From TrEMBL:
InterPro entries: Aldolase_class_II_sugar_metab (IPR050197), Aldolase_II/adducin_N (IPR001303), Aldolase_II/adducin_N_sf (IPR036409). Gene3D superfamilies: Class II aldolase/adducin N-terminal domain (3.40.225.10). Residues 15-206 form the Class II aldolase/adducin N-terminal domain. GO terms for cellular component: cytosol. This is Class II Aldolase and Adducin domain-containing protein. GO terms for molecular function: aldehyde-lyase activity; metal ion binding. Keywords: Lyase, Metal-binding. It comes from the Eukaryota. One of its GO terms (biological process) is pentose catabolic process. It comes from Colletotrichum cuscutae. Pfam families: Aldolase_II.
Amino acid sequence: MAALPHTDDLRKLFSKLIDGSHILHFHQVVDAYGHLSFRYPLDPDIFVMSRNVAPAQVSEIRDLVAYRVGDAEPLEAESPPGFAERRIHSEVYKRHPQVNAVVHSHTEAVVPYTISGVPLRAVSHMCGFLGANGLPVFDTADHMENSDVDDLLVRSENMGAHLAKHFDDGNNVTLMRGHGFTVVASSIELAVMRAVYTQKNASIQTTALMLQGVTGVTGGVKSLSQDECMASDKTTQWSLMRPWNLWVQEIECNKVYKKML
């Protein structure tokens, strides 16, 4: 990371990136796979994420890599190997200048909503950011080019660009068929919170659907209205630091996670 000046503000972002990676693992939003990134505040054409390592194992500055938004290549030629799917991050940052943090997850609670045709929508007051109309589902099969690998991963500029379009019109979360989901936000803290609560919302909605199936209740699961989504999202953002500070304390007390800055 010698390419970026290690100012106090940047070190705070490095610390948040490490904490966020650990929090996502602690809440089982990621396991050995998945990743978190942030946009470099002094140059919007640069973003930072960890090297190709499990999120729980990110622990120090040398685990982090700075990339160019334009081509998702590292600023430094001698950087450690990166994630195959860093185009998820670069193409979102390229298309959406208001986005400053991205999370990609494969959590099993959400994947059924990427393949079943059942829309995932906000059903809890903590999840208004999901919206009332059901999340869009990105499918790599719809965008294959000859050079793309047919493994459902977002490896290329082509795939990343098509995924990034799904965040138009203020959408915060996009499902990915047979794969997982991607979350965008204005900060690391908000991106992590949205990822955690996307998983929680999926679990709540699945439980409600199962209850209806077992009991024979009809009429569908009642979700939030659009007005409720907007109002609850504002309230959740207002209280953002309460869960963040709790989650940081939880990982600091857990010997699995190490941070050496």
